[in-house]
Design a protein that fits this description.
Elements (H helix, E strand, L loop, with lengths): L4 E4 L2 H19 L4 E2 L10 H11 L2 E6 L16 H11 L3 E7 L24 E2 L4 H19 E5 L6 E7 L2 E4 L5
Parallel strand pairs: 1-2, 1-3, 3-4, 4-5
Antiparallel strand pairs: 6-7, 7-8
Helix pairs in contact: 2-3
């Protein structure tokens, strides 16, 4: 089965908040259902691993810290990985949720390259250190609604028991094991 969430972030911008949110989501969804680049196996092509992880995810969480739009306009570099992740998620019609970290503002369309400028128009929450638990719970409640929209049920004809399934890329996968 695919992953529920992919987390896109800049290490020099929102690493601490990202890792805290990652730990929180792992507790809610299970370790194998949340992807962050530190989970990537050694010796693999970074771009291909990112594509696979996004393909398998329902939601792409984009962490936006105060330096998301850097002075060096890094996002306008075609080989920037954060740009690549967001662009690929848009290309694959993923649900993208921007998460502003500690008072960060959403970037304007002028701050973003063309293929990801619509990120500035997407509604998303703020995650604050001084309100961490409440903000995480709020994010979790909203994400649960998104995940639940993607979840369906399968009835085993042999015993009539129902099992959760999840749809990822037009394929239906078992979300739990058969008894």
């Amino acid at each position: 089965m695919g992953r529920s969430s992919f987390i896109s972030y800049r290490r020099n911008d929102s690493k601490d908040s990202t890792y805290r949110l990652y730990d929180f989501l792992k507790k809610q969804l299970g370790h194998n259902n949340v992807f962050i680049d530190v989970d990537m196996p050694y010796g693999k092509d970074f771009s291909e691993e990112i594509k696979t992880a996004i393909d398998e995810s329902i939601v792409v969480l984009v962490m936006i810290g105060k330096n998301f739009v850097a002075k060096d306009r890094r996002l306008f570099n075609e080989i920037d990985y954060v740009r690549f992740e967001i662009s690929y998620a848009f290309e694959k019609s993923k649900i993208i949720v921007p998460i502003r970290v500690n008072g960060s503002e959403m970037p304007s369309t002028n701050d973003l390259p063309g293929e990801i400028e619509k990120l500035s128009l997407i509604n998303g929450p703020e995650l604050r250190n001084d309100n961490w638990e409440t903000d995480c719970q709020h994010i979790w409640e909203k994400l649960k609604n998104i995940y639940n929209e993607q979840v369906d049920r399968f009835t085993d004809f042999r015993d009539g028991k129902q099992y959760r399934t999840i749809k990822v890329l037009e394929k239906t996968w078992m979300a739990e094991n058969l008894n």
